[in-house]
Write a structure and sequence with these properties.
By secondary structure, this protein is an all-alpha fold. The chain has 11 helices and no strands. About 17% of the residues have low confidence.
């Protein structure tokens, strides 16, 4: 199955803010790494190649699961070392998954700057599937809400906040949060209102946007424009 599978995008969109991408990778790993292994009818050499590549992917998968287990056990340094090995010598899409997971672990460890740099780098690589690039940019943007400026958040997320983008809900959310934190309540209202007005916004994102809109209105710092 392709990387832009609609169900994958929908689930990632809803889980980005909870900072639990690990569960998404586990749940949708088989989609991300390309789906079921193709059964090839042909020459023995061709079949042998696919057998070999399948074994390589299986080995990388085992290593990836082992790294996740180390992370679950709070053995962060060991998990990062295991993920680094997969990044260097893994097969299929596991090196990319390892990079994403390692960046999340960096953030959990307190290396926010390193995590932002890692996610941002993935988001700029044209060889990476668009859905993963966008997810990485959003992860960088959410981390920047606490540590950066609105402009830095916008540099990662604003291009994703357009109607045609599957991640527009999360992009508008992070831009609204960044504007709110920066004290630009008028801009925050615009982003949160865009979420509320979009009938496809996930319920959790829409509810948070409405709550923040109510807070902004109650504060009187960004009154509703009268038309």
């Amino acid at each position: 199955m392709a990387f832009n599978d609609d169900s994958f995008i929908r689930e990632v969109n809803e889980e980005l803010r909870s900072d639990q991408l690990r569960f998404v990778w586990r749940r949708f790993g088989r989609f991300i790494i390309g789906g079921a292994v193709l059964i090839v009818l042909g020459t023995a050499a061709y079949s042998g190649y696919h057998y070999w590549s399948g074994r390589q992917a299986g080995s990388s998968g085992d290593q990836f699961i082992a790294a996740l287990t180390l992370a679950d056990q709070n053995k962060t340094d060991d998990a990062l070392a295991a993920l680094a090995t997969i990044e260097k010598s893994g097969s299929g899409s596991y090196p990319l998954l390892a990079r994403m997971r390692a960046a999340t672990l960096q953030a959990q460890k307190g290396d926010t700057a390193g995590a932002i740099a890692a996610f941002s780098a993935i988001g700029k690589e044209t060889s990476v599937p668009t859905v993963i690039r966008d997810a990485a940019r959003l992860r960088a943007a959410y981390l920047l809400v606490d540590t950066g400026t609105y402009d830095q958040v916008a540099a990662e997320a604003q291009e994703l906040a357009v109607p045609a983008n599957a991640f527009r809900h999360s992009a508008r959310d992070v831009l609204g949060l960044a504007a709110y934190k920066a004290g630009d309540f008028a801009k925050a209202r615009q982003w949160f209102q865009a979420i509320v007005d979009d009938p496809q916004s996930p319920r959790n994102v829409g509810n948070r946007a409405q709550m923040l809109l109510d807070l902004i209105t109650a504060s009187g710092k960004a009154p509703v424009a009268k038309g």
